[in-house]
Amino acid sequence: MPLVETQTRDLAHDEEQEFVWTLNFGPQHPATHTTLRLVLKLEGERVIDAMPDIGYLHSGFEKIGEHLDYNQYVTVTDRMNYISPMANNVAWHCAVEKLLDLDVPPRCQYIRTIICELARISDHLLSTGAMGLDTGAFTFFLYAFNQREKIYDIFETLCGARFTNSYTRVGGVMHDATPLFVEKVREFVRTFPRTVEDMERLLNRNRIFVDRTKGVGVLSKVDAIGWSCSGPIARASGVTRDLRRDEPYLCYPDFDFKVCCMREGDCFARYLIRIAEIKESLKIVAQAIENLPEGPVNCEVGDRAHLPDKSQVYQTIEGCITHFELTMSNRGFEVPEEECYHATEAPNGELGFYLAGDSSDVAYRARCRPPSYIHFAVFPHLIKGHTLSDVVAVLGSLNIIAAELDR
Amino acid sequence: MTYSKEHSQAIQARFPDLVWSTFRDETRCVTDRGMLFDVLEFLKCEQGFDLLVDVTCVDYLNYRDAVDRFGLVYLLANTAINERINVRCFVNEPELSVRSATPLWQGANWMEREVWDMFGIHFEGHPDHRRILMPDEFTAHPLRKDYPLRGRGERHNFPVLERGAS
Question: What is the domain extent for residue A345?
Answer without folding.
Answer: 61-101+104-298+336-406
